[in-house]
Amino acid sequence: MDKIQTTISNLIENQFPSIYKEEGQNLIAFIQAYYEWMESEDNPLYHSRRLIDYSDIDTTLEEFIIHFKETYLAGVQFDTLSDKRLTVKKILDLYRSKGNDRALKLLFRLVFKEDIDIYYPGDDIIKPSDGIWNIPVYLEVTHSPRNNEYVGKTVTGLVSGATAFVDRLIRRKSDVVYRDIFYITGNKKDFVTGESLRVDDNSDNRPVVIGSLSSLIVDEGGANFAVGDIVNLSSIDGFGRNGKARVDEIKQVTGIVDFKLKDGGWGYTSDSDILISETVLTLANVQSTFPTYVEFLPKFSTVVLNNPANNAANVTANVFAFSTTPIVVGTQVGAASFLKNEMFVSTYGTASVNGYIQFVNKDTTTTPPTITLNLSNVFNSFIKPGSILVGQTSGAQINVTSFNTDVGVIDLSDDTTNHTKLYLKNNDERLLSIDTVSGDFTYGEQIRQWSAASGTAATTAACTDVTGTTTSFTTQFIADDYIRIANSIASEVRQIASITNTTFLTVTTPFSNTFSGAGVYYTSGRGNILDFSSNTMLTTVDHEYGDFVTNKIIIGANSEASANVTAVANVEANATITNISTGIDANFVIKNLSNTETVFLATDYISDNNANDVPYVNTERRNRLVDLTVTGSTSGYSNTDYIVISNTTLHTINAQATLSTNGTGGFTNLDIVIANTGSFYRLTGNTDVVIAVKNSSGGSSSGTGATLVANLQLDQVVYLNDLAYGFPKKPDANATYGTLVDVLNFEIKQLGAIESIRITNQGKNYNDNPYVDILESRVANRRKQDYVLTVGNLTGAFATGEKITQDVPLGTDYKLLTINTVGIVVQTANVNTTTDVITYTSHNLTTGVPLLYSAESGTPITGLTDLTKYYVIKTGTNTFKLANTYHNSINATPAPINLTGTGNNGQKFYRYFSYGEAVYQNNGVSNTAVGVVIDIGDPTIANTLLVKKTSGNFTTSYNVHGVSSLANAAVTDVATEVQYGHAIGRIQSISGSTLYVRRLSINQDFEAGANTIVGELSAATGNITKVSANLFSLYSGDNANVQSNVVTANGTVSVLSVVDSGFAYANSELVNFESQDGTKIGTARAVLERQGIGEGYYMSTRGFLDSNKYIQDGTYYQEFSYEIESTLSLSKYAKMVKDVVHVAGTKMFGAIVRKSMIENAVNVESEITITQDV
Length: 1174
Prior knowledge:
This protein is mainly beta.
């Protein structure tokens, strides 16, 4: 319709006749004014002319909005912020949306200008089986530059024909192994290990399926598992990670080992050797020629085990431990009673032994009472009637009346089935019976036995020449050997420097006397004293010089004591084996250490091979058997006979051969098979060996007619290279180049007491408890025992079990040098940004050496950071590159830093002094001071060095140089630094003023004197008046005690199934499976056949009762409730919502949500929710 004019007053004049325009102007003006008044706001015409507009909500009067609200919005309340006109216009949308979220959100937006959230508690009601279970599936593949092309495409296995869609590619690292992994979906068949994956017709660089952990074959099932247990899988020798399996089946097993830590000892590292015997032998009828003061079957000695069915099958085994069947009987002394598991000490004369008491029985029907003790860890040759045995904790004592010395148990490192006789013979030792002793021999000194050489000799005092008459110097002596010149008045021994001919030689030091026509003697027997008594001596024998014989004099090289040898006996023993244990694979590891001390431990041993795999001490000439021939008419031999090629007087490993016979017991060259080539020490001819045919019992064969000839050939002559000894740390070092600290490797280790162990394998098929020893040989070889401390000037009372310490001044040899390190100046012209090479003439750098880069306040080389450590990649005598890490510098393919800028002409590289290296000052002629670096100052650039002086005196006059690092620094100040050694121990027992203390430090011993000891808990103090070693204690590093017990176990795993394949496992590798709490463990073999799976999971928490899933309560948590989340109180809108949009049969709740936003560098939002019921 046409729009109505809002004003008509402007039309009034045209409504009058023209006469009024001439005669009635006032009337027209009056009428026009009247209409203008009527059209003014709030007058009749004003509204009547706008009635059409008032029907439109956008242009209606405010008074009419109430009419619209009552007509169309009954129940809706208006807020002061609400846009009423918009609300009326949108009311139809609101009504059409009634029953869903939109109606509520629109209502609040229209009425309150409020954005709300709607929460339905029914969404979080637990519903059984409502979760969605997902198991990730993936392929571990070889790295290929095309791998990214496979993402988002379907791949096909070229062997299996399996297909899958590749969702994503990730790369994972396990230690140094990287794996590319395709996560796949939609596979209907299994992929197979080793097949290539096809995505298109391009066959270049297709990735290959490596395979993932698919199944497990149980090796050692452990104990105490339950079906359904989830176990973690870890590689023992490989890189596999994150695998998991489920225990599907268990069984009961016997013959597994349980280990219990009884005493953690002290002196161990986390990787100390754990020795567990493989065989336990029970012995009877022990026969021994060992002297009573020598330990029978000591640790790491060797024994020979005899197989009567086949003597050629005899084996040599290493002894871990020997103990007798531990029963001792004695009469009680005093009233104290022995304690179970306490240590005892038994003495017999000057000999003693210690062990542990396992069981005590007291017979009070006798006077005094008779005590029977079961013992452990004791050697039978030390306890005998007349011994005195004392408990170290209880103080109880018995006089021993009997001890069963004819049986025992031996623990070996080797499997020894089918053997019934044990032999122990140390061919490197002899037991000498002696008389006519003159002087005092000393432990460890060399003794020599002399035999008369041909002719006589003359010498002159203060001269080194020896002139012989009818002598045979060239055949009876060798250079470096010793010669003895003697007459009725004097006797002198000298080392031979050189031999000119049969009648002339020179010695290394001049003679003190003049001899003429004197007797000449050569060494016919030589060794070192191991132990001795008044009439016996245990000594080594140096086979190069023959063996000791009777009725000849031995002389001590240091003491010059002498004695006559009346008898020479082999050191040997034998016994009957009555039982051989079984069992393999039991093991444990050290888990935690306590009471630790940081030490330097040497890792190079004189018994090792050098960098060229040559033994340091092997300068021996050795021959081996290469052929064995027979002549003569042979008969009567047996197929069980065997041939032994030996040399009884020289240090050899005997050779052996087997033979096959014909019907008459004959054999030929073709019937001989060499089983062991042997090793013969410094033999020069085939006639030096003895060849014998033995029967199966070790006796002579009954065959006849065989003449056997052995053909020996030179196997090796090994000498160290005089120019380079081949030390791993510094291979080019020799007798004149390189100090010990620079050529030998040291490791910084934490020594401590074993706090706990973790069983990694309980083994299988054990029928006897294996012997267990934890050995840190680098500490045990120092032979440090626990202490017995006598203490005076006591203040307070020390407590058993507490730690004590003593600070001991270390003298004045520690010098603190203040230094300015001299740097290598590298100018910009010597930095090549194309090749990344830095040039410096004769830099003397080696790959892996650290350098500190300093821009010296100038522009740094682009690619390097000022005052940062880098590592050298040596490319030439005058050139090198740099790497960010040590590994990147020494890697087979080094990773040099990309240098894109040349820096400035004043920039420098500084060498680092090294901990433990030798340093020196030199005046241009000789060294004026030498020391060892103990500590270094500022880690970025050494500004101080703490040096232990070994010779001379450090001054500010000369630079200090590092022997191995080649670092060079000016010394600006030298100060004496007071250093203290820290002796630490733990009190085990107290008797009056005597403390029995477990050693807890190896760098510093307790010392008697004015230095105070302090109790950690009691704060007691005192001064040590006497320090003694506890001779009954074991050496640190070999004093832990782990008890092993063979047990029957339930819950041994027999079947495992993989629930998470992890990654980077290797096919057939041995893996540990371990319970979630780490208390149970077993082993299994990994099988890699197909794609891997991840541990399954629900993609939501639907179906689970947890922190956001709830049980229906009929009120809030139900299917027909909803919650309005807004900033408004429920009371403000509850009625309106119910009247307007609420759906019948539902329940409304309101939650007040208060949000605040703090705007700064970051936005911080907080939220508080309060739920209200209607």
